[in-house]
Amino acid sequence: MLSTLVVFGCVAAFAVSGQGCRHKEYRTRSGDCCPMCHEGTFVRRDCTGQSGTRCSVCDNGTFTSQPNGLEKCFPCTSCGQGHGLFVQLDCTIRSDTVCGAQSGHYCKSLADDTGCSLAEKHTLCAAGEGIKYPGTNTTDTVCELCQPGYFSQDGVNCTPWTICSGSHGKVKEGSASSDVVCNRASRQRYFYIPVLLSVLTLAGLVIPCKCHVKGSRSDP
After folding, report:
1. What is the DSSP letter of 39?
2. Closest CA relative to residue 34, chosen from 195, 42, 44, 22
3. Is the pLDDT of residue 85 over 60?
């Protein structure tokens, strides 16, 4: 990449050593004051009594966001995917990369210029807990214990216990992580009798009964 050379200042802008530098001037190693380079550039050569500051455009992957007297540009921030981050805005020669939190993560450390610098996965609620507030890209998930009479096996929603009614008595009490267990034996017993009779009739093993009632007609 061919760097662009920019010259700032003139002979009159060169300050005497030892004096305080003016606004948008920087102090050189020799103690002189020179005009700063614009954002997106850096100092290639300090000003002298005969020439102003010589500046060059930042290389790809580097930037300066303010007027400066730097000898090189800053490296662009990398949004590491392994750290739950993604590139929200690409780096330019005048601004750093802006990172954001990936889906399923929230930003734990937020910087003004580069966005999210540290992201963590949303907390997974445990069995016996429900989600009170879902996680966002800036806040973690908030969990809460299931109230008495409710349960959660997957740590998502607290569901009311099943109510055992009629002949289906309660076999096992519910807990925060498991439902009530009802007795279904009586229901199963009555269910199988008509099914069994239907199967036997279709197979020809049960023959319908022809009943003869006395007194219904005279014998010949």
Report:
1. T
2. 22
3. yes
**C-alpha span between 91 and 72 (Å, rounded):** 16
Strand 98-101 and strand 85-89: the pairing is antiparallel
| pLDDT tens readout for residues 9-43 | 433 344 444 458 999 999 999 999 999 999 999 99
Query: Would you give the DSSP letter of residue 12?
Result: G
Q: What CA–CA distance (Å, rounded) separates 55 from 77?
A: 23
Q: What is the pTM of this model?
A: 0.61
One-character DSSP codes across 105-170: EEEEEEETTTEEEEEEEPPPPPTTEEEEE---SSS--EEEEPPTTEE-SSSS--EEPPPP-TT--E
The two structure tokens encoding residue 204: 């020809």
**What residues does 98 pair with on adjacent strands?**
89
CA diameter of the chain = 149
- Cα separation, 147 vs 132, in Å, equals 12
| Distance between CA atoms of residues 51 and 48, nearest Å | 5
CA separation for the pair 27, 161 (Å, rounded): 75
